[in-house]
Amino acid sequence: MVRIRLSRVGSKGQPSYRIVVLDREAPRDGRALEILGHYNPRTEPSTIQVKEDRVYDWMSKGAQPSESVVKIFKSIGLLDRFARFKTGEAIEILMDEAAKATPTVDPRTRHATPVKKAQKAQA
């Protein structure tokens, strides 16, 4: 079974995630079949970039999203658009709607960068 799930990237204490397609038994950070997007929970609001047409393709082939990915997809309205896609609505209309719904995000993170122990000792 193929799953759509998160793969962690980023340095220690500064997580960022890729939304990837993996075999169900593959390790969390294993080789992905395809990278579908990115999710950064550290920005305010969270940054979510998804290739919706590829998500529709994988989900129509039977790929199951994980619980965390379902929450992300619901927050951007992707699951509602996928339901409309399954009923036969044109993908071009859905892609235009998704592009209009994508907010612009300030790239600054809401959390301060962790201070290393060596820097604390010098201060």
Spatial ordering of strands, largest sheet: 4-3-2-1-5
Mean pLDDT: 83
- What helical percentage do the residues reach? 25-40%
Helical/strand content category? alpha+beta
Residue share in β-strands: 15-25%
Count of discrete structural domains? 1
Total helices: the number is 5
Low-confidence stretches: none
> What is the end-to-end distance?
52 Å
H/E element string? EEEEHEHHHH
Largest sheet, strands/sense/barrel = 5 strands, mixed
The number of E-state strands comes to 5
Question: What is the CATH architecture term?
Answer: 2-Layer Sandwich
Outline, from the CA principal axes?
A: flat
Under CATH, the topology can be stated as S16 Ribosomal Protein, Chain: A
CATH superfamily: Ribosomal protein S16
The top-level CATH class is: Alpha Beta
**Rg over C-alpha atoms, rounded to the nearest angstrom:** 17 Å
Lay out the secondary structure.
Blueprint: E1 2-9, E2 16-23, E3 34-40, E4 47-50, H1 52-60, E5 64-65, H2 67-76, H3 78-86, H4 91-101, H5 117-122
Describe this structure as you would to a colleague.
The protein is an alpha+beta fold and 123 residues long. It has a single domain, classed as Ribosomal protein S16 (S16 Ribosomal Protein, Chain: A, 2-Layer Sandwich). It is 37% helix and 24% strand. It has five helices and five strands, in the order E-E-E-E-H-E-H-H-H-H. It has helices at 52-60, 67-76, 78-86, 91-101, 117-122; strands at 2-9, 16-23, 34-40, 47-50, 64-65. A five-stranded mixed sheet has the order 4-3-2-1-5. The longest helix is centred in the last third of the chain and has 11 residues, at 91-101. The protein is flat. The termini are far apart.
